[in-house]
Write a structure and sequence with these properties.
The protein has nine helices and four strands; from the N terminus they run H-H-E-E-H-H-H-E-E-H-H-H-H. The chain is mostly helical. The chain has one domain: yeast vps74-n-term truncation variant fold (Orthogonal Bundle). A hairpin with a 3-residue loop joins strand 3 and strand 4. Helix 2 packs antiparallel against helix 7 and helix 7 packs across helix 8. The longest helix is centred in the first third of the chain and has 18 residues. The radius of gyration is 17 Å and the shape is globular. The chain starts with 5 loop residues before the first helix and ends in a 5-residue tail after the last helix. The mean pLDDT is 91.
């Protein structure tokens, strides 16, 4: 597992470093983060997709608090579809991830009270090296010809699924090229159904979980391919 969780990586990409405010679709980010937690568990070999549902194959913790809580929750509950799980998990997830990042000194919580009672929270970056590492991995994936590692391929595909390409800081032709490359990564990884999973270097069980979660997110956002 990387230095931070996939859901944290997605959140850091979505939040402006200086203003500390989320950019893009809030519900898209929340759905993407919920999917990211489940992808984290798939990467760790804890869950698989079987007969339309997410199933726990190994209940032992992976050492990431939020993912471990979700793992225990999935294991204790009746089987649910990927679409059901992303909706169940998205509520309150962002606040929990932000609190953890604050505790670790990656971002800070700026509480701005207006009219004496309306609280508006911003989360400007304190330690830019964490997000810099994430962006560096994505940048290498965008300019390279080889399929990146499983984790980076999954992150790239989630970024595309929740329409977060603008968060990469690219404009014009560069942004269009990045969007195309993100799609190619998902295709070649076997996440989109255009390439056989047996032909991908991504583990089939992982590719299947990512594929169904990305589809669930896109359907929820109304952006699923027709």
């Amino acid at each position: 597992m990387g230095s931070i969780a996939l859901a944290e990586e997605l959140l850091l990409l979505a939040y402006d470093d200086e203003s500390g405010k989320a950019t893009g679709s809030h519900i898209g980010l929340d759905l993407g983060m919920a999917a990211a937690v489940l992808v984290e568990l798939a990467l760790a070999g804890r869950i698989v997709y079987v007969d339309g549902t997410i199933v726990v194959t190994e209940p032992s913790p992976i050492g990431e608090p939020i993912a471990d809580e979700v793992l225990a929750r999935v294991a204790a509950d009746t089987p649910h579809s990927p679409a059901s799980w992303v909706q169940r998990l998205r509520h309150g997830l962002r606040d929990r991830v932000l609190a953890d990042l604050c505790d670790r000194g990656v971002v800070r919580d700026v509480d701005e009270t207006t009219m004496g009672f309306i609280h508006v929270h911003r989360y400007p970056t304190v330690d830019p090296t964490v997000e810099a590492d994430v962006r560096a991995r994505l940048s290498r994936a965008l300019i390279g010809d080889e399929l990146p590692d499983e984790r980076t391929a999954a992150l790239a595909t989630l970024v595309a699924a929740v329409r977060m390409t603008p968060a990469l800081g690219l404009t014009g032709a560069d942004a269009a090229a990045a969007h195309q490359r993100l799609g190619q990564i998902g295709d070649r990884a076997g996440f989109t159904g255009s390439v056989s999973m047996e032909e991908s270097s991504i583990r089939p069980a992982v590719a299947l979980v990512v594929a169904v979660l990305v589809s669930a997110v896109q359907i929820a956002l109304g952006t699923a391919p027709r």
